[in-house]
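Cast an eye over this sequence plus tokens and walk me through the fold:

***
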Amino acid sequence: MVVQALINRGIAPLRPSDTVEHALGMLMEYRVRHLPTVTLAGELVGLVSEEQLLDAEESGTTVGSLLQQVPVHAKPDLHVFEATRTIVEHGLTVLPVATENMSYLGVVKRHDIFDLFARMLSTQESGAILALEVDPADYSLSRLVYSIEQSDVKILSIASETPETEGKVRVTLKLNVNDTSRVRHVLEHEGYQIVAAFSEYDDDEDLKMRVQEFMRYLEV
């Protein structure tokens, strides 16, 4: 999927002549921390943050005077994975979308793009979640899928995180079953280290404990 499919045109952009006071009011209205700045001719000329506005010396300062460089933006044919990387890298709540000649088209909201990923990862589907680790040299997606499906279990979604330097590949699986005992046994026999397992059958206290342990593991 490309950015074009997620463009939100319901958020009005700022104008270079708008004051800091007006811009802060717009941020509150749309519940975001960034807004694009667009000329009357429709050219994207900036992306203003809440921090910039709060740091302005006077509330009557114009937004245009705060613009310093070509704004961070995405082209409409950019893949959502690349757009997500830009959003995370710059800590954005909205990502402006513009054509090659900087003609403004709208924004992609951080909330909407992560909602998309939630659907792609089948978070709304019933089933258990497994988190596991494996050495990079031993990681094979086809082998992992085969091992799981040999247990009569289907994978609803899969996400992997490759270490930047040394370390193991982390893989998170959403399965179509709640009882993972059989598939865990198979994976451990194949050399995978199961680091967390979550099921809809877990009671609240057990689930809370498992989540806390997994979060501590991720922080290591």
